[in-house]
Amino acid sequence: MLAAGETPEFLGPIVALLVSAGLIGALFVRIKVVPIVGFLLAGVLLGPHQLGLIADEEAVHSAADIGVMLLLFTIGAEFSVERLSRIKRFVLGGGTVQVVLTTAVVTGLFALLGQDWRVGVFTGFLIALSSTAIVLKVIAAKGATQQPIGQAAVGTLIFQDLAIIVMVLLIPVLGGESDGGALGIARALGTAALVLTAVLVVARKVMPPLLERVARLCSPEVFLLTIVAIALGVAYVTSLAGISEALGAFLAGMVLSESRHSAHALSEIMPLQMIFSAVFFVSIGMLLDVGALAELWWMVLIAAAAVVVIKVATAYTAVAVLRVGAPTAMGAAFLLAQIGEFSFVLQQVGSDYGLTPAGLGAEGDQLLVAVTVLLMAATPALGALGGTLARRLPERAAPAPADGDGSEPSGDTRDRVLLSGWGPVSKNLGHYLKVNDVPVTVTTLSPDLAAEAEAFGHTVVRGEAIKAGVLHEIDMERVKLIVIAENSAEEATHVAHVLHGVAPGVPIVVRPTDAPDVAGLYEARVERVVDTHRAVTEPLGRTVLDLLKIDHVDMGRPNPTAVDLFRPDPDTACAHAETIQPVLPKSAGCTECLRQGRRDWIHLRLCTSCGFVGCCDDSPGRHAGLHADRFAHPIVRSVEPGETWAWCYLDSAMLDSADTPAEHP
């Protein structure tokens, strides 16, 4: 414990790290350069070789290791197994050719210079790897993740990360201290394969039900702790088997990607990942000794130029052999023209066996750091250069899409309405918008409510609408209107503030669940506030369609403002009477029949849970019963003139009415 007034020793360095990284990163963003370059520069300035403001380098490097694990975890979560299979030719084909060809070229060059082949292979391993962290950041900033150039680069990077396992196992052989020779390597590779398979199988069995239970608590804090525990736990288990903990975190993320909670998990963990990733890039910059390189600057420039030439040539060849066209190959090649962060892992392993970059000892270590930092910083410029050259190359007609070509399935690309939260008001509004053919995206923390919204045909993103990961998943460019209808006025004001900052041009409509603080809501740049005390959702729906400039489709509804509430006789025995709610009839006829252009119903039934109007079981469509079965809405009432009864499909029971439809509010 610290005495009163005593400042902890670690606080000053941490403040210096965060402040400098934030300021320099902001400066680079202002000049339209990715902030990673600023983080690297901050590390150079704060490191022991310059200002020396950070004395505890070990703590920084430990935090950086966590940053790498969380970064690869989020990458894995965004790269599902299904999506990975669609770019498998880039992973297995392009990645294999790039790594093998780069290592062979470097080994050949060192042989021509009279160096031992082992030094050439080791240096080739170091150069073959590219920076997964920086390339993915650059691709995301350019919005090229789903483009052929981005997919080719990412596929190659994934193979490189997997190849690290083999490289680590081969380093003892290069150092002349292998245990068991080829048999030992084969045994180690087999063990690694078994461990990775076991991790994937167990994680797939355990993670989905665990996340489902945690998500039902609707606690962001508990959910975040669970996600971090999974990421670091799987990384720890794989490290015990001699496999890169970063690769273990990547596998955990890939398993998570198959879960319906992946977007929610990303939204919760992303702020934490960003902080630790920034520390990682600062730690890389701290390794550079600018003073010691004053006399070696010419070697740094020559080595950096050589690395760029070699990597562009080999990466271009690796992608070009897949017949994806010269522009794609050129753009991907320049994105991969740097040395990666995991080369430092190999460098550390190699030092234990007497191997150093280019066989130059300590001087080679500094040369590797300098070239790596320089090319990492130059990656955005190299990517832009590659894009410029790619646009000047003739595009060859692409072959017909095949299995594993990387193409993404097309979805509904129409403009849509975002409903923040799902509850009684949003449910009715969602139905009203669907009748008017307006696509809807719903955000909610509750798995049960998410499943219900999906059952109604809406796009659902699990998580809070104010989280960056959720907003990314939503694709805010297609959102033309935001509705906040399931929050109190205070909560709605906070949500509106955040969403207006993200999408300043998108109108926001709020219907708070309590008495609205109208002045506060309008200060949050809300376009329209709907009075909470109105008993129906139709005015809210009309407000939304008015703002969207869409004509209303009432489908012949005789009284669109009349809310229907069936009141069962108290003596009626039905276990599902509590599902009856005030509902707004969706149409004056069977909703599905009208959609299909039919009017062949015999009798009409009204769902007392959501207001769906369907045809009876004697009608050809039988849409009332089908709707009840699909959405688990058990009770329908007859809307035929003079009939006041309802029917429960689950209990197969008739419910008598306590009053008549004319008495309904």
TrEMBL record:
Keywords: Membrane, Transmembrane, Transmembrane helix, Transport. The chain crosses the membrane at residues 12-29, 36-54, 60-79, 91-113, 119-140, 152-175, 181-202, 214-234, 269-290, 296-322, 329-347, 367-390. Residues 572-665 form the UBP-type domain. GO terms for biological process: potassium ion transport; proton transmembrane transport. One of its GO terms (cellular component) is membrane. It is a multi-pass membrane protein. Its main location: membrane. GO terms for molecular function: antiporter activity; zinc ion binding. Residues 396-416 are annotated as: Disordered. The keyword Manganese does not apply. Signal peptide: none annotated. It is found in: Membrane. PANTHER family: SODIUM/HYDROGEN EXCHANGER FAMILY/TRKA DOMAIN PROTEIN, SODIUM_GLUTAMATE SYMPORTER. Belongs to the monovalent cation:proton antiporter 2 (CPA2) transporter (TC 2.A.37) family. This is CPA2 family monovalent cation:H+ antiporter-2.
